[in-house]
UniProtKB/TrEMBL annotation:
InterPro entries: Metallo-depent_PP-like. It comes from the Bacteria. It comes from Paenarthrobacter ureafaciens. This is Calcineurin-like phosphoesterase domain-containing protein.
Length: 204
């Protein structure tokens, strides 16, 4: 069975490189024949589903990282990218990296008030987009936890939010989405790659 992974960049990804990727006519950039990335604020029609992307997040540990190596200042989505996504109209699926505000998630980090405020900017922005589009499904990561939650919007509509776990988790660091009409059939998917202590590890 052939699978195509549709991904949205995270806060530790090289956004300078992502920005230089050539976006195909269908609105998605190809990094491998079976791995495709949605630009921030972009959208595509895939298997009859309208899918939008708003990747990126704030790195709460950015002071311990090196710019251009494992941290990029443009790691967070912008209001302009969010506005472009909303202007495009309804979506069936929204793929982000951070979770929208209002999700019952607890971090292991003890953050200062300033770091919390900076981190919440992206979450609030994603929530605004989710409220505006009342998208049926939202997939995200960032928190290294597997959670499913129904987010209720001001108009009473519901978004099912799937927070994916971290790499090498059997709880599901990906999801298998079956084409159809929302609500969609969703199954957890474990994506395996080289572990950090593997002798033939890849680059990230």
């Amino acid at each position: 069975m052939g699978l195509t992974l549709i991904i949205s960049g995270g806060n530790h990804d090289n956004w300078d490189t992502i920005a230089r990727l050539s976006v195909d006519t269908d609105g998605v950039a190809t990094v491998h024949p079976n791995i495709r990335i949605l630009p921030r604020g972009g959208r595509a029609q895939i298997e009859g589903l309208a899918i939008g992307g708003l990747g990126g997040a704030f790195s709460v540990d950015f002071e311990n990282r090196t710019e251009g190596r494992d941290w990029w200042p443009n790691e967070q989505p912008t209001r302009e990218e969010a506005a472009a996504l909303v202007a495009g109209g309804p979506l069936d699926i929204l793929i982000t990296h951070d979770a929208p505000a209002g999700m019952p998630l607890k971090s292991d980090f003890q953050l200062s008030a300033q770091l919390s405020e900076n981190a919440n900017k992206t979450r609030n922005l994603i929530r605004e987009v989710a409220d505006s589009l009342t998208v049926p499904h939202l997939f995200c990561g960032h928190w290294h936890q597997r959670r499913t939650h129904e987010l209720k919007h001001p108009d009473g509509k519901i978004t099912r939010v799937d927070v994916l776990d971290m790499e090498h988790s059997r709880h599901g660091n990906g999801v298998l989405v079956w084409p159809g009409k929302p609500p969609l059939r969703i199954e957890p998917l474990e994506i395996r790659g080289p572990k950090p202590n593997d002798s033939h590890r890849g680059t990230s």
